[in-house]
Design goal:
The protein contains 13 helices and twelve strands. With 305 residues, the chain is α+β, with helices and mostly antiparallel strands. The protein folds into two domains: 159 residues, no CATH class; 87 residues, no CATH class. This is Winged helix DNA-binding protein.
Length: 305
């Protein structure tokens, strides 16, 4: 039994999910500021479509994620942390507390249908919430509204009203769900993943991790895949020598290949060509490249770089 094998199992990389609900019951969320990347993450876990009872909204680390509708309680749990963290920047942009509070009922009034940001800003102006569309103010106001549980963002990037019909849950429950998705892991890892301040994660309950053994599983993971994003220290899975090839700055992760949980290569798509750059020996990615091609609906050709 190894920690990496357990993490691969928890992330449904070595034990694929049967459908969307099964996937999100296990992994809790997929990072989704980039929807093609979120779809690649689902593919690597056995799910070919993200149709279903999913909501795209701001959650862990104040970042866009896909969540099952039954798990929207996390918005109410984490939202106040990110609202407080963003207050200074909002004030710099002229978004006073008073204006932000007035904007919430205004958003409920004008969001009668899914809207793109530019149209939403125009409609807000019509009801007295005037924002400079060329500034960062619209983005920060909409993030405030999302963290307040008022709106979310569709997979098509439109904004729409959010309705949360979940019983409130606390940090202990989020810790349990995190451990189910990422265990074995530490409270420090949980702080990094969730974005919660460390003072809020003391006295966490014990959680048992499922046993697992290495199985030779090879997976090609895309940008922002959650596998590496769940940990403060990624060195067990990613050799620090190769980390700059994967972690290129700004929270960006280059598409990478994992074998039994260890990152062994990076890859990129160039049309129908899938170019793989191994760190050492060439991993056996032929089946993954073929599946990736079917998923992307291209006749994928493997090349080594």
């Amino acid at each position: 039994m190894t920690v990496l094998a357990q993490r691969m199992r928890a992330q449904r990389l070595s034990h694929p999910a049967t459908d969307v609900t099964d996937l999100f019951t296990s992994v809790f969320a997929l990072q989704a500021q980039d929807m093609p990347a979120a779809r690649l993450a689902a593919r690597a876990r056995g799910v070919r479509s993200l149709d279903g009872p999913l909501v795209r909204t701001w959650a862990m680390r104040g970042t866009l994620h896909l969540l099952h509708e039954d798990d929207l309680w996390v918005v109410n749990l984490l939202g106040p942390t990110f609202i407080a963290a963003g207050r200074r920047r909002r004030e710099q942009l002229g978004l006073t507390d008073e204006l932000c509070e007035r904007a919430l009922p205004a958003l409920r009034e004008v969001l009668t249908e899914p809207l793109e940001r530019a149209e939403l800003v125009r409609r807000l102006a019509d009801v007295g919430i005037v924002l400079d569309p060329k500034s960062q103010a619209p983005a920060h106001l909409l993030a405030f509204a999302a963290n307040s549980g008022v709106l979310c963002r569709g997979q098509d990037d439109t904004y729409r009203l959010l309705r949360i019909d979940c019983e409130p849950r606390g940090v202990d429950e989020l810790w349990r769900r995190y451990r189910r998705a990422y265990g074995p892991a530490t409270p420090d890892d949980f702080v990094t993943w969730s974005g919660l301040p460390k003072r809020q994660v003391k006295g966490l309950p014990e959680v048992a991790d499922e046993p697992a053994e290495p199985s030779g599983t090879v997976r090609m993971l895309g940008h922002f895949d959650p596998y590496l994003l769940g940990y403060r220290d990624r060195s067990l899975a990613l050799d620090p020598e190769h980390a700059p090839l994967v972690q290129t700055g700004g929270g960006f992760l280059t598409p990478h290949v994992v074998v039994d949980g260890r990152v062994v290569a990076v890859w990129r798509r160039d049309g129908t060509r899938i170019a793989v750059h191994p760190f050492d020996a060439r991993p056996d990615v032929a089946r993954e490249v073929a599946d990736l091609g079917r998923f992307l609906q291209v006749d994928a050709a493997l090349t080594w770089v």
